[in-house]
Amino acid sequence: MPCFSNIRHEIAGVPILDLAHEFGTPTFVYDTGTIVQRIEDLRAFDHIRYAQKACSNLAVLDLMRQHGVLVDTVSAGEIRRALVAGYAPTGSPPPIVYTADIFDRESLNLVVEQNIHVNCGSPDMLDQYGSLAPGREVTLRINPGFGHGHSRKTNTGGDQSKHGIWYDQLHDCLVNADNYGLSVTGLHMHIGSGTDLEHLSQVCAAMEKAALELGRNLKSISAGGGLPIPYQEDQQRLDLGAYFAVWNATRQRLQDHFGHAISLEIEPGRYLVAESGYLIAEIRAIKRQADNVFYLVDAGFNNLARPILYGAHHPMAIVPADGETRRPEVDVIVGGPLCESGDIFTQEEGGFVITRCLPTAAVGDLLVIECAGAYGFVMGSNYNSKPLAAEVLIADGRPHLIRRRQTFEDLIAGEMIPQQP
Ligand code: LLP
User: Fold this and answer.
1) pLDDT digits (tens, 9 = 90+) for 218-240
2) Can you give the pLDDT at residue 2?
3) What is the CA(226)–ligand 1 centre distance, in A?
4) Quick one: CA dihedral 342, 277, 163, 248, positive or negative?
5) Which of 109, 148, 172, 318 is 20 to 30 Å from the Cα of 356, by its Cα?
6) Which CA distances in Å does 277 have to 2, 60, 175, 177, 304?
7) Which of 35, 53, 117, 309 maximizes ligand 1 atoms within 8 Å of its Cβ, making it the mutation to test the pocket?
8) How does DSSP classify residue 251?
9) Cα separation of 15 and 366, whole Å?
């Protein structure tokens, strides 16, 4: 595995110094080979649906589509991306699904107009959709009453979560769907990012119960996303075989009960793209504050917000500008350029700054933040008027620019100074 090495020279065979030279920094680089491998890991499921919120660049969506991966969307913008990347609006199974807890007016109009499959996460969505598009098929996202996540902010089940239809409202929703002639053909549960096998049996039991209540119209069940990846060296990879087996047994029991085929879908974001992605930054200052040494780089939480939001740990490596392969190590704090104290990549949840053991470095060396393909670029911002980073995809051993860096003109496009009368 490429992660966890502290000195790194290349990504998928391409020298990182060349990437920085050609595309500048900060730049996200994704390795096609890793994404394809992760897709293959999940082939046991009938359908793999990519939660594009993790990384929605058109080139990544195109890659998914070419490998037979369906797509999940949460906004009109994500639906439009899927369409531009070549996904058909309709089909069986639906190539594009809209899973959300609300329709804003734009997304409601778009799903009605394009006949995009809707996975409703709130009872109100049934009324809004049913009154405009009676007779269509829908699926329901159920909140089973409990959840699980790598942080409180990524737990999407239980009574503190806004997500999904509360399990005891399923009956009312089915009656309401009938009123509009909507046919409920599938159920979906996504209880959070970072699910584990312990919680899985609970989720599957809740799914089975809801499925029996829904009855024989049931055609599909979705396990949602949430598959973890090892961000730290000591973290084990999820046993996918065991994960599939529990879901498959649930599906099997439902098939036996209803006497017809039921498809089993999985909907990961992180699992498919996290490990493929690297954020390349340049070290622009090294300073000592009392006993602490800071490496300050030209990427900040405007590029990768996971550390400041969740205290997330990402592996890091140094790319020596002179090509050296060995350097002594030192405990450092890694921070970015933003005018905000929280702009630190080495922090724990709650904002506690910690140190990381990294090779000694000099200004001009590069720093690579690894496992940054999921919820990296997509959660970027223009804070401090920083342009969004460039994105590069390595395919067939060659780097391809898949998003140019924003320019200053992009930044101010759309802004207006009111004219004085
Ligand atoms: N399906 C639904 C309905 C979701 O809400 C999500 C994630 C996924 C699938 C994909 O979850 P994944 O397989 O990527 O864990 N920004 C956070 C993660 C937020 C996830 C939101 N929903 C992070 O950086 O960890």
Assistant:
1) 999 999 999 999 999 899 999 99
2) 38
3) 6
4) negative
5) 148
6) 11, 11, 45, 42, 12
7) 53
8) H
9) 12
> How far does the centroid of ligand 1 lie from the alpha carbon of residue 54, in Å?
7
CB-based contact 11:315 (threshold 8 Å): no
Q: Which single residue is written with the structure tokens 């959840």?
A: 147
Average pLDDT over residues 331-339: 98
CB 25 within 8 A of CB 282: yes
Could you give phi then psi for residue 350, rounded to 5 degrees? 100, -5
Burial group, residue 250, by CB count within 10 angstroms (0-12, 13-18, 19+): buried
Q: Where are the beta strands (DSSP E) in 267-311?
A: 277-289, 292-297
Over residues 279-289, the mean pLDDT reads 98
Q: What is the DSSP letter of 53?
A: G
Which residues partner with 368 through β-bridges?
A: 280, 317
Angstrom distance (rounded) from CA 151 to CA 133? 38
What pLDDT, on the 0 to 100 scale, is given for residue 44?
98
Q: DSSP labels for 107-169?
A: HHHHHHHHT-EEEESSHHHHHHHHHHSTT-EEEEEEE-S----SSGGGB--STT---SEEGGG
User: pLDDT tens for residues 3-20?
Assistant: 345 999 999 999 999 999
pLDDT at residue number 194 = 67
> How far is the centre of ligand 1, averaged over its atoms, from the C-alpha of 399 (Å)?
28
Task: Identify the residues whose C-beta falls under 6 Å from ligand 1.
Answer: 51, 53-54, 72, 99, 154, 156, 190, 193, 224-227, 267-271, 306, 374-375
Helix (H) or strand (E) holding 83: helix 76-84
CA-proximal residue: ligand 1, atom 9 (nearest): 225
DSSP 367-379: EEE-S-SSSSGGG
Binned at pLDDT 50, 70 and 90, residue 191 comes out as confident
Give pLDDT tens digits for 141-169. Answer: 999 998 877 777 777 788 888 999 999 99
Query: Residue 1: pLDDT above 60?
Result: no
The first and second tokens of residue 157, run together, are 């089940």
